């Protein structure tokens, strides 16, 4: 039996204001490369990922200086104002009947074996797809306001709560239809799974490595570098 085609989609049109940097965060330096290069090269190294589509800003002046921009398996498209717009733009360039593996540009520390575990969802006919996630371990507090000095309203139960990560994996046609429907209905689409949920799809939670952090604040950079170093050491030990 032929394995389904898997195409990675990377929405990378954001600015990343919280990094307080002079460029979008995906182009910040991390262990000798840009964050985006680490992310793309990891996905390119996976034997089951056929190709990658990256949605970039129309004003992006950085990506064309990187070798990944001209890689034979990489396609660049113009993204949109919101994540869903960028993902839809990228999905317009993928083959119909493939599976879309949507991954954040700023998550360079995802593990190959986590991607393997996620791809196993393609064999599960009881679900629409799946996402990498980690169980919530910390005590969760609900704030009473969004002011500069919020107060605790109450403590949320962390039972059955998970942190949603990426990649998130769904059939491309299903994801296109779900995103369009959710946007038309004015639903809160914060990730691909939320669009699938909106149309009634069941989404599997695949437990992933907590090192798969999203670089959002300046303090995340040294932590990401540490995780990359540990991953490289582990790979050397396996060789």
UniProtKB/TrEMBL annotation:
Keyword Nucleotidyltransferase: yes
Nucleotidyltransferase keyword on record: yes
Pathway: Isoprenoid biosynthesis; isopentenyl diphosphate biosynthesis via DXP pathway; isopentenyl diphosphate from 1-deoxy-D-xylulose 5-phosphate: step 2/6
EC number: 2.7.7.60
Protein task: Catalyzes the formation of 4-diphosphocytidyl-2-C-methyl-D-erythritol from CTP and 2-C-methyl-D-erythritol 4-phosphate (MEP).
PANTHER family: 2-C-METHYL-D-ERYTHRITOL 4-PHOSPHATE CYTIDYLYLTRANSFERASE, CHLOROPLASTIC
Protein's name according to its UniProt entry: 2-C-methyl-D-erythritol 4-phosphate cytidylyltransferase
Upper classification of the organism: Bacteria, Pseudomonadati, Pseudomonadota, Gammaproteobacteria, Alteromonadales
